[in-house]
């Protein structure tokens, strides 16, 4: 039994309001569903950031300090398709060591295979670790660092969590080290809602995978068809939320927890948050967490920004 998952489910379903973290959607099934989401016509985020790195990697390289050699450390690299664009630009004039950090052995194996095929000259040092424990282990390497946190992953935190994450990042870096972070920008609310409520129902299946996973791994007795996927977007806060809502009153037993959970009709489980930003908020975050902004890099439609920050000198 996955003890961490069981503890999380127990805490979330016994809370008021109920919640489950989207990070537990990403088992093998959920990861495949997310790959499908990234190619949906409504889901602009991946295409927007790819286009930034396709056309702005040279400008990003120019905005970095003139380090002849440094580490590029990536939190959650995915398959490396986007990162490859930046790395191949940096390799034109710099010596790099690329350090993807992930808790998944398979994810690290996949990125290593891809990078060796695409960029055989690149020095690779995959690191199996939690993000910050991995970063902390590199603190005394003596090499400057560029940390990548792409894909709007930072939007999956609330405001308090975001600031705590960025401050922890800042504390793990040396003065002058850099962070390149992806932020989805505020835009027409209808476009944002459509990106998280696609016409093919893939995002719905992605969220419902949480219930299927509880059934598979914890002996849950959820009937996923008795829950409705309900996304909502709040333009003022820029927060996109997703819920699974019980269509009827029901009790669900989870064997691993030895507990029944009661769901009144229309009771909700919060499953996902994805925050959208404006530039003023991004710059305030940088300042509040001890970074200075070195540059913003946009796609043609200004749907997305990769923002380059440097740790301020003490």
Question: Could you provide a short overview of the structure?
Answer:
With 314 residues, the chain is α/β, with parallel strands linked by helices. It folds into two domains: 3-42 and 190-275, no CATH class; 45-187 and 277-311, 3-Layer(aba) Sandwich (Rossmann fold), CATH 3.40.50.
Architecture blueprint of SSEs:
Elements: H1 3-13, E1 18-19, H2 28-38, H3 45-63, E2 69-75, H4 81-90, E3 95-102, H5 105-118, E4 123-124, E5 127-128, H6 131-137, E6 145-149, H7 159-172, E7 178-184, H8 189-195, H9 202-218, E8 227-234, E9 239-246, E10 250-254, E11 259-263, E12 268-275, H10 279-288, E13 291-298, E14 304-311
Parallel strand pairs: 1-12, 2-3, 2-6, 3-4, 3-5, 6-7
Antiparallel strand pairs: 7-14, 8-9, 9-12, 10-11, 13-14
Helix pairs in contact: 2-9, 3-4
Structural description of this entry:
It is built from ten helices and 14 strands. The chain has 314 residues and is of the alpha/beta class. It folds into two domains: 3-42 and 190-275, no CATH class; 45-187 and 277-311, Vaccinia Virus protein VP39 (Rossmann fold), CATH 3.40.50.150. The strands form three sheets. Strands 2, 3, 4, 5, 6, 7, 13 and 14 form an eight-stranded mixed sheet that branches. The termini are far apart. The mean pLDDT is 95.
